[in-house]
Amino acid sequence: RPLMNGNVSGIGQIPAQAQMAGFGAAIDACGRGGRWPMALWLLHTMHAQRQQPDVTCFNATISAVDRGEAWHHVLSLLAAMEKRKLRPTVVTAGAALSACGRGGQWQFAIELLDQMEGKNVPMNMSCFNAAMSACG
Fold first, then answer.
1. pLDDT by residue (tens digit) across 91-131?
2. What is d(CA 14, CA 51) in angstroms, rounded to the nearest whole number?
3. Over the Cα atoms of the chain, what is R_g?
4. pLDDT tens digits for 44-79?
5. Backbone dihedral region of 91: left (phi > 0), alpha (psi from -120 to 50 degrees) or beta?
């Protein structure tokens, strides 16, 4: 049965590392295809299947909501990462800051920039550009 119908039975027979890669690839494809709600659903499904999403899965989901201009989901995704003790990366920072920019959320972008700096998250020029574009 296709995954799109919500059926992920039998997934436990696939090795955990392959499951993680498959979920990550599916989340990324959803983001690239403008299907950010499906990306969020897949991340939630991982939790329901007792999978522990890694930083790559979270980054792909944050990127998906960025592309979908659904910046408000970034807050909960970052909180979920922190709860799981996953360290944000430059990709996390860039996608989250970009989502803030698309949503016109300059206050949140500045706060996020400060938080990322406080956590010693490496940032590049794209991160700073995304923060500046959020400020208008």
1. 999 999 999 988 889 999 999 999 999 999 999 999 999 88
2. 12
3. 15
4. 999 888 888 999 999 999 999 999 889 899 989 999
5. alpha
* Chain mean position to CA 21: 15
- The whole model's pTM is what? 0.84
Is the sign of the CA dihedral 19, 25, 8, 61 positive or negative? Answer: positive
- The DSSP string of the chain is --GGGT--TTGGGS-HHHHHHHHHHHHHHHHHTT-HHHHHHHHHHHHHTT----HHHHHHHHHHHHHTT-THHHHHHHHHHHHTTPPP-HHHHHHHHHHHHHTT-HHHHHHHHHHHHHTT----HHHHHHHHHHT-
Token code pair at residue 17: 């590392």
Q: Which of 102, 95, 90 is nearest to 133 (CA)?
A: 102
How far, in Å, CA of 57 to CA of 46, rounded?
10
Inter-axis angle of helices 55-67 and 90-102, nearest 10:
20
